[in-house]
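The instructor's notes for this session suggest beginning with a concrete chain rather than abstract definitions. Hand out the sequence below and ask the class to guess, before any prediction is shown, which regions might be ordered.
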Amino acid sequence: MDIRIDSVQPFAEAQAFGKAGVYERLKGVARGTLDPYHPQNTAVVDLEKAQRNAQGLVEYEIDLDILRPADPSLSNGVVLYEVTNRGNKLIGRLNGVTPANPTNPIELNDPLTRAHAGTGFLFERGSTLVWSGWDPTVPSRAATMTVRFPLALEDGKPMVRRIREEFQVGKRIPSSDTIVLTYPAASLDKSKARLMMRRRESGPRTEIPREQWDYVDARHVRLLPEGTLPTPLTIYEFWYEATNSRVTGIAFAAVRDLMSFLRHSPDSPLAASKPRHAIAFGISQSGRFLRHFLDLRMNRDLDGRRVFDGVHAHTGGDGKTFINHSFAEPNRTTSQHVDRLYPEAWAPFSVATTTDPFSGKTASLFAGDGTDPLLIQSNTSAEYWEKGASLLTIDALGHADLAMPETSRAYLIAGTQHAGALPTAPRGPNANAVNWQSPMPAVRALLTAMEDWVVRGIAPPPSRVPTIKDGTAIDASTIRFPSAPDFALPRVSGKIRTTPVDWIDPPGSPDSKQDKPEGAYLTLVSAVDADGNEVAGIRLPPVAVPLATYTGWNVFRDLPDELADRDGSYVPFAQTRAEREASGDGRRSLAERYRSLDDYVMQVRVCVDQLVAERLLLPADAEAYVAAAKASDAFRPASLPLAAAK
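After discussion, reveal the predicted structure:
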């Protein structure tokens, strides 16, 4: 591998971060080659179809970004590699950096100023942070990180295949009269394409006549007459002949070889800091990337060494990624209503060695060859409701807890949704108010525990997940939530199919060869208490000392029998018994729970002290929770100032 550094800049205006001192930022590119016949590269789909150089090797190039202590002697010897998410850096959230405009992540993607350092949590530790591009479908904009991967060729020309694109506006995609295709159409001949729609995930499809849609160009389609907008939340599917598929699976080998080079090569830009440990971290898509990375046995480099000593996959659920495929679409992620029929979840799901009851295959995410990392998997409630997270620690039939290896931990962060939201976030198409409880305080503690595990051999706290043994893991259909005003209840949960469907011609589509999916694994969720709050997992103060009900699910206002992607719900308690009885709220009011604001603050203090003692919360976050409790206006009568309410 060859690394070219294009720029070196002071980070955070040369602010010193404790013993780690001043940081600097390096930007450049890494160029690598792969032997398509090397046994550890044969897992990369279509690698043999890529153009080769004179040495018979496949070339690629990736964007590279590094934040390191300017004085190598002040480094703690830990390289923290974050897998980018759709080209974006997300780890800044752990530093408390929130973009002023959430739709433009450049403040996280282009860290340079003192504000971009946030609380300095990651830098005061002296770790070196590394990011690289891996997704060829990511464009170069808003400081995203991308790659240059070769095309998959057949007879010397870009491969052409009939594929299916699904799109739905109003949630993940903003409303627009044009839809962007992942791959360019090989032909604009409309007779070779087909557009269909269905209102619900399991509903029947209706064909949209060809005279009612058109190509704008090879990368865009639109409804006719011009200006017609897609119906919000409706699922549209477009079949067409696509071209220019790249060898996207190179992503896994590129991360493997980059980290091996950074750790061991004398030509590494980190050689002076003598890195001794490497930890990988990923959120959502990136967490699934890391699970897939392990499944492909990429944590063993070409010299047989361990690539990452520790891996922390957050909100990865039971999934992997739609990367190592022809015409891959890495941006896809399944939920009950959206992208349901794309490749994401397949056995093995767990690091425990299990025999799949449907295929009969015995396997584990761990290789068992001495190169497996220490592993932490943390998930929100949303991954249990939508992404089968119970399969990490419970068998596929929902009968028994799995015997997990001592080198792994799993945690549910109770009552949280997939991605954080602000308390002022609008409901959008959701029936319930959006859950704003953040899982990040727990994630900070777990990442700290991971470093202690890797560097000092101090094991993290025991796993905290719903279990069969203690009766906290149950079928979602058996949960009885309390009655409350303005609280729409779920009628479904996400199901994980036992047999991966044909993503191009899935069951129910016109050319499908599968009449229906063959079945689903039994996935379980956490039981709830009388307030509807989850009883299993890490219960942060909003759940343990509640002012509301927090869930990892929501439903669409106009489609109440469909889950609203991976959003959660927030349903505040009434202030008084009279108020709740008048509204039909079955949950105790604030006045029935807490004698005063001081009583509430005291209970929050007891909660955070316990979490700190258990190493599930950092002291700084504990104090932040207490300060927020003291400032809470939940106990303030509408007609009285806060002082009078106290």
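Then share the key points. Residues 541 and 604 are 6 Å apart (CA to CA). Residues 440-456 form the longest helix (17 residues).
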